[in-house]
Automatic annotation (TrEMBL):
<protein>
    <recommendedName>
        <fullName>MBL fold metallo-hydrolase</fullName>
    </recommendedName>
</protein>
<dbReference type="InterPro" id="IPR036866">
    <property type="entry name" value="RibonucZ/Hydroxyglut_hydro"/>
</dbReference>
Amino acid sequence: MKGSGTAEYRTIDRWDGGVGWLAYPDEEMQRASHALVGDDGGVWLFDPVDAPNLDELLAEYGDVSGIVVGLDRHKRDAAKLATRHDVPVYVADWMTGVADELDAPVERFSRRLADSGFEAFTILDSSIPPWQEVGFYHESSGTLLVPETVGTASYFCAPGERLGVHPMLRPFPPRRALRRFDPDRVLVGHGAGVMGNAAGAFQDALDNARTNIPGAYRKAFQKMLS
């Protein structure tokens, strides 16, 4: 599921306001990382996985302002990159059990991610299943970043879906936290983002999460057997 060792990263989701990359393009989990330019002019790295020569890519967009953990399980290479760029790791002030596991300075944030211009909002804060996830929205660019609830990796999507709800959340997707957004692009933590007709794909994913359970689970099961 996860890649290891060294590999040549592949860029995804590139536009004037940022870029994403897959550190291990061939891994099944398709762990996606993003560098987004904030209103402060700095570059913010979201749930990053490090890769050889990554700093050359980041330098195209500016200096790194901070590293952001959007999901409690997405510590990934946050501390390593924070140390290399001499910046803190930003963790939501309500998240537990994350900051203590990061070998780097930690800054807490609430509803705004410092001076980046990104609104931060709680997607899930649950003990069953154990899940702490914060999303980010940049209104002026219409950019929505959802670390885990939706994705485009194959195991997220039912047949015909461009964007799918995480298999564990399909029965009860967190629609209340997400439905208010009408994004121009949706960036995700697993797979390439949706850069065209993103609002339609996003609403379809939320609306049809339960309806498409049979197809999604059948596809996942067949993939496990292949």
